[in-house]
Amino acid sequence: MDSPSPPADLEWSDSDVEDMLVDVEPRQLLPRVFQVEMRQLMYGFGDARQPREDSAALTEALLLEYVAAVVSRCVDVASTRGRRVPDVSDLRFLLRRDLRKLRRVNYLVAMKEVIDETTKKGKELESLGR
Predict the structure, then answer these.
(1) Domain locations in the chain?
(2) What pLDDT is stored for residue 123 in this prediction?
(3) Given CA atoms 46, 91, 117, 120 in this order, what sign does their dihedral have?
(4) Are 34 and 59 in contact (CB under 8 A)?
(5) Does the keyword section mention Transcription regulation (predicted)?
(6) What pLDDT score was predicted for residue 10?
(7) What is the structure's pLDDT at 3?
(8) For residue 94, which of 2, 16, 3, 6 has the smallest C-alpha distance?
């Protein structure tokens, strides 16, 4: 099975984040669990080799708020559809007007299927003693 190619345009704008944060209530301070990864991502996207801790903390806080908003909206969509647990179709529904993000979700789902299929075949070969 051919692996899908990643979407060309994966950048996020400030308005993308603001659009998702409109209906979210401010949260208590969340623990900084992605501090190291956030600094590495910032460097990977062109920031200084050692980004400032406060910049990484702010970026992490924005990311966590964004993810919380998306999950909250997915739960709302799932409950509207009569389900207690959201699935990828609810996320696709939320992103239906943002083709760039929708393509990214579709790509990641397709890659997960490729990985699952490859893992399954690998386990079958192991069970045969090869």
Answers:
(1) 14-87, 95-130
(2) 87
(3) positive
(4) no
(5) yes
(6) 47
(7) 53
(8) 16
- Position 23, amino acid: D
Answer whether 0.85 is exceeded by the pTM: no
For residue 51, what are the contacts with CB-CB under 8 A and spacing of at least 6? 39, 42, 43
Digit-coded pLDDT (tens) for 71-114: 999 999 999 999 999 999 999 999 999 999 999 999 999 999 99
- 3-state SS string over the chain? CCCCCCCCCCCCCHHHHHHHHCCCCCCCCCCCCCHHHHHHHHHHCCCCCCCCHHHHHHHHHHHHHHHHHHHHHHHHHHHHCCCCCCCHHHHHHHCCCCHHHHHHHHHHHHHHHHHHHHHHHHHHHHHCCC
pLDDT per position as a tens digit, 2-49: 555 555 554 555 565 555 555 545 555 567 788 899 999 999 999 999
User: Mean pLDDT, the chain, as a whole number?
Assistant: 83
